[in-house]
Amino acid sequence: MTVKSLRGLCNPRTSPAPRGNLYIELLDEYETHKLPMKNPKTTRRQIPSHTKNQIIGFLEGGKSVAEAHQAYDVSESTIRSIWNKYKITGSAENRQRSGRPPVLTTANKRHIVRTARKQRRTPFAEVGNQLGLQASESTIRRALKHEGYRRCVARKVPYLKKHHRIA
What we know:
Radius of gyration: 34 Å
Helix content: 40-55%
Shape: rod-shaped
Strand content: under 5%
Number of strands: 0
C-alpha cells in the first residue's frame, strides 16, 4: 500500500473517511514495510592499512568474501579489490598520491621562526632571502603562522629628542 492510496482513503471528495482505527492500522502497516532511506551523499573513506591486512589474513585463512564483508563492515566489491591488489602486488598499501612537494622542510620552518624572532622588524621576504630559501613572502608568512608565531606590523613612533624624553 502506498502513501497515495492511503491518502485516497482519507480524501472526503473521493471516498468516505475510514472509521475507527483502520486508518492508523494502514499507516502502521505502511511504516513497517517502508524501506530505510539511504543518505544521498556518499562519503568516500580510506580503509586503514591494519584493517586491510586483517581482511587479507581473513581471506588467506580460507574464509569467503561474504564472511569478510559481515565481519569488517566493508562492501564485498571493496574486499575483492583489496584481495586482487594483494595478489598482484603482494601488498595492500596505498600508492603514493601525486601532489606538489613542500618547499620548506621542518628544519627550514624552525630556522625561519628563529630568524624572525631575532630580527623582529625585517620583512618576511627579507627573512627568506637571508636564509637563502627560494620561497615567497606568503610561504614564509604561512610557515610562521603554522608554527604559532604571529607578528604584527610595528607602530610608527615619532623620533623623540633628549628634551622630550626628560619631560
